[in-house]
Amino acid sequence: MSAAAHHAPTSLGVSHYKLAMWTFLGSECFFFGSLIGTYMSYRGKSINGPYPLDVFSAEVTSISTFDLLLSSLFMALAVHYAKLGEINKAIAWIGATIVGGLIFLGFQVYEFSHFYHEGLTPRVNLFGATFFTLTGFHGAHVTVGVLLLASLAYYVKAGKLNDPGESTEIIGLYWHFVDIVWIAIFTLVYLLEYT
Amino acid sequence: MSAAHEKHEEHGNPIPKYLLTFGFLLAATLVEALPLFGLVNIPAPFLLGLSLVKFAVVVLIFMHMLGDHLMFWRVFWIPLVMASVTVCVLISLFGSWTLSYQEVRGKRDLDEVAACYRARYDGDCAAWARSPFTHNEYCAAPRSQADDPCQPLNTTMTTTLAYEALQKPKDADPRFEGFDTKTPEEKKAILMTVGAEVYTTNCVACHGAEGKGVPGAFPPLEADPVANGPAADHISIILKGLNGKVINGVSYGAAMPAWPQLSNDQIAAVSTYERMSWGNKGDMVEPAAVAAAR
After folding, report:
1. Of the candidates B184, B209, B214, B215, which has an alpha carbon nearest to the alpha carbon of residue B196?
2. Range of the domain at B126
3. Burial group, residue B25, by CB count within 10 angstroms (0-12, 13-18, 19+)
4. Which of A37, B36, B122, B179 has its CA 20 to 30 A from that of B155?
5. A2 CB near a chain B CB, below 8 Å?
6. Which residue from A26, A85, A177 is facing B1, i.e. has the nearest CB?
7. Which of B42, B83, B94 is closest, CB to CB, to A29?
8. B137 to chain A: closest CA residue
9. pLDDT tens-digit map of A59-97
10. B7 touches chain A (CB under 8 A)
């Protein structure tokens, strides 16, 4: 238990902050589970267009999926260097992760406005309503992640954290979770339309 | 910091492991992206399996779940499994495991279904009856038996044919070649044969195969005053349509569509057919009369 040695000892023997984040992510499973369940229940039931294949763009989706995966790699590297105490490298990789997140958000803004011009709005049909709710909430999570990372970078740089390694790891957990939610959305919402 | 340092050195340098993980995720995503570009067709169960593996790899390696405290497993995987079961139950109850939009579109054009539904909802039974989707689950089911404005039709087949007939350009029918030089018996035979076809394609949906119509919605043509009266009225109704006329004391909410897209030959044939079937006593209508009416 050398890892726990630099913590104030906790009654559970694990970091409370980290456990809190995992618990929160467990509750997020329910949150996204209900949105995905709703999307899947209404799938294929819109009685007027635009339908998914009328608006989806294979290029945009593939590139933004790749981008988010890449940002997960950057995040893992940031956690690695933060734990080693190599603060500057950690900040650099946090910055790279932020850039990855911003690129993803840029693609989402592009995608949403493109869909809007194609006539897909949240009120036009079931597909629009469920699609924008699901991917919109995911995008909101990415936005929160970017803000968390930016403040993390600031606090790490300013030396205001007791344990930058652990803080980076905890925010990293959130970031990876947002990535795995996208893995699910990418498959269920996008890929299934092409089977 | 030294303690954290120590811990990491125990595990060695994880960067190659991270790169390998990313390489795997990238490869899996590339495979998944193939169907997006129409390069190969990958069955849905395989795609779902692959994304499950990706999901697990990120959690186990990037999120360090592997080798971490068991407590984290419990607070994450238990809710995850419960949420996944909920999603599956929702799909089973309200969705479908097989339905895809492409499938739906292959079977029927949803915009047409929507138009059909709208017509039915607005009580526009003529437009509804012309739609090929009168038996579609969205369009055929009455909103409620009591206030359903349109009676169900006999077969989807006839309405589909009617719809197709509306779309098709008309070619001159070779059976009418040299029509004017034929004897009245020959003329009648041609008109009745072609008339039966035109009727089955265009009119049967509303007026019924036996000319009995649909009570309250579409008038019978059996013993109909127009079918037994002057041919000019009959032709003009077919050419221009009809709305709001009270026939034998019954007023019909629906309108009779106009059929200007039918050829003179076809209109002559169908009106002759109507005038000489089901005990009607009307006279024969020749294409020249239709040409004159136009």
Report:
1. B209
2. 107-166
3. buried
4. B122
5. yes
6. A85
7. B83
8. A47
9. 899 999 999 999 999 999 999 999 999 999 999 999 999
10. yes
Q: Is B104 on the interface with A (CB under 8 A)?
A: yes
Per-residue pLDDT tens over the stretch B232-257? 999 999 988 888 888 888 888 778 88
A113 touches B at CB < 8 Å: no
What pTM was computed for the model?
0.58
Please tell me whether residues B150 and B212 are part of one structural domain. Answer: no
Nearest-angstrom CA–CA distance, A145 and A180: 13
Q: According to the 3-state scheme, what is the secondary structure of B162-216? A: HHHHHHCCCCCCHHHCCHHHCCHHHHHHHHHHHHHHHHHHHHHHHHCCCCCCECC
Instruction: Check: CB of residue A53 under 8 Å from CB of residue A41.
Output: no
Nearest to B4 among A6, A19, A32 (CB): A6
CA atoms within 13 A on the CB side of A131: 27
The length of chain A in residues reads 195
In CATH, the architecture of A15-42+61-194 is Up-down Bundle (1.20)
Do B18 and A77 lie within an 8 Å CB cutoff? yes
